[in-house]
Amino acid sequence: MTEVNEVELVELARLSKPGDAGMIQELLENNGIDVIVQGQSLNALWPGGYSETVLLVKQSDLERAQPLYDAFFEPQEGDDLPAETDVPADLAN
């Protein structure tokens, strides 16, 4: 009998810009956090219109994902990402 492990997904963010969703997804995945992006294909159907992209992560990864997400939008002086964080070169200016 095969045991199925259920994974609880939680919402990390809702975004209106698919480009931001893609960059955040890359940042999280580069740091070992799996991300599910919902609604991304809908953004392509309505360019210039409003549609949401939802980022989902495992409940167990939320504590690590939240500071990375927050730092992407609101970097605080003296509140740098941990030294071991792998930030893509195009985001590390």
Structure, briefly:
With 93 residues, this protein is α+β, with helices and mostly antiparallel strands. It has three helices and three strands.
Can you give a write-up of this model?
The protein is α+β, with helices and mostly antiparallel strands. The protein has helices spanning 18-30, 40-45, 62-73, and strands at 9-15, 36-38, 53-58. The longest helix is centred in the first third of the chain and has 13 residues, at 18-30. The protein is globular and about 50 Å long. The mean pLDDT is 80.
How far do the termini sit from each other? Answer: 51 Å
| Strand order in the largest sheet | 1-3-2
Give the biggest beta sheet.
3 strands, antiparallel
Q: What string, H for helix and E for strand, traces the elements in order?
A: EHEHEH
Let me know the number of strands. 3
- Considering DSSP H and I runs of 4 or more, what fraction of the residues is helical? 25-40%
* Number of discrete helical segments: 3
- Radius of gyration, whole Å: 15 Å
The residue ranges in which pLDDT falls below 50 over 5 or more consecutive positions are none
Question: Mean pLDDT, rounded to whole units?
Answer: 80
Shape, per Cα inertia axes: globular
The fraction of residues in strands falls at: 15-25%
Look at the helices and sheets and give the structural class.
alpha+beta
